[in-house]
Amino acid sequence: MTPHRLAVLAAAAIALAGCAHREEPSPPHGLFSVGDGRSLFLDCQGSASPTVFIIPGKGSYAEAWNVAVAPDDPIRSSPYDIIEQARLGPSPDAVQPTLAKRGRVCAYDRPDTRPDGTDRSTSVPQPHTVAADVDDIVALIGAARLQGPFIVVAHSYGGLVADLLARTHPDLVSALVMVDPVSEFLPTVGSPAQNASFDRDGRVPAIPDGEGLLLDDAFRRIADAPPLPNVPAAVLSSGKFFPPQMLTPENYTQAQIHRANDMLADALHTTNQIVADSGHN
Questions:
Q1: Which residue, among 118, 121, 107, has the nearest Cα to 31 in the 3D structure?
Q2: pLDDT per position in the chain (281 positions), as tens?
Q3: Of the N and C termini of the chain, which has fewer Cβ atoms inside 10 Å?
Q4: Distance, CA of 142 to CA of 138 (rounded, Å)
Q5: Is residue 281 part of a domain?
Q6: CB under 8 Å to 230, separation ≥6 — which residues?
Q7: Could you tell me if 40 and 136 are in contact, meaning their C-beta atoms sit under 8 angstroms apart?
Q8: Is 80 helix (H, G, I), strand (E, B) or coil?
Q9: Nearest 10 degrees: CA dihedral of 268, 57, 31, 33?
Q10: Does residue 86 fall inside a structural domain?
């Protein structure tokens, strides 16, 4: 089971626990103005509340939550995370359509994240700050007239965005599901060389003219922000790691990442669940 798939179960459990469901208007879909002549692409599916709001990882976008690894793909039996070799395709069993059977689920494209065509969201200068991502989400929620608070599902870098969003706009967040997140505690467990390397790598786009991140800035902003709200939460960590030949001494180890996620789970008053047969994506 991938961490995305486990997120379906975790988010569904949080969504269904003690929540009264009501029908919402037709789900928003398309481009919405967020100010300064910019628009963001939003895809919402499902018609009942509460609403799940998905925050993708670096260089990822809404479509990623609508595809799945083929059931017979040999990468499923690999001991390593080799998702780049996977056969991915649209699937009714992917995260967004599965959750949409229970409630409304919205995913969006951050600027400069679409790897398979022209960007739908307006491009911005890269690298950019986590605060800009939080501001974009708040503006997008308003422009699309989404009804909160939201069950926020965040993957990888999206975990930092969700972290700052929850701290600065707690009224928008009813629950948090962190899927193999970039934990705010990584700088605590990492060496100076590892932390510097992580910040450098974050600035480099995964695709030409793609998204770049200011990770040191993100960690500082979160450290200076108000405390995390006391809401239902889940933290999920991948059990598979990258092949040894892909790693250098400047990369965080899997043990360090798990430790940072343990610390994040403690801060959220939950436990870090390690999904043995899952990779990062």
A1: 121
A2: 454 555 555 665 555 444 555 566 688 999 999 999 999 999 999 987 789 999 999 999 999 889 877 777 666 666 666 566 566 778 888 889 988 888 899 999 999 999 888 899 999 999 999 999 999 999 999 999 999 999 999 999 999 999 999 999 999 999 999 999 999 999 999 999 999 999 999 999 988 899 999 999 999 999 999 999 999 999 999 876 766 677 788 999 999 999 999 999 999 999 999 887 776 66
A3: N
A4: 6
A5: no
A6: 269
A7: yes
A8: strand
A9: 60
A10: yes
Q: How far is CA 112 from CA 7, 15, 132, 134, in A?
A: 25, 31, 14, 16
Half-sphere exposure of 267 (CA within 13 A, CB side): 20
Q: What is the CATH number of the domain that holds 91?
A: 3.40.50.1820
Residue with tokens 């970039």: 182
Bridge-based pairing of strands 173-179 and 233-238 is parallel
In a domain, 280, yes or no: no
Inside any domain, residue 29: yes
Q: How many domains does the chain have?
A: 1
Q: List Cα–Cα distances, 176 to 105, 179, 265, in angstroms.
A: 14, 10, 11
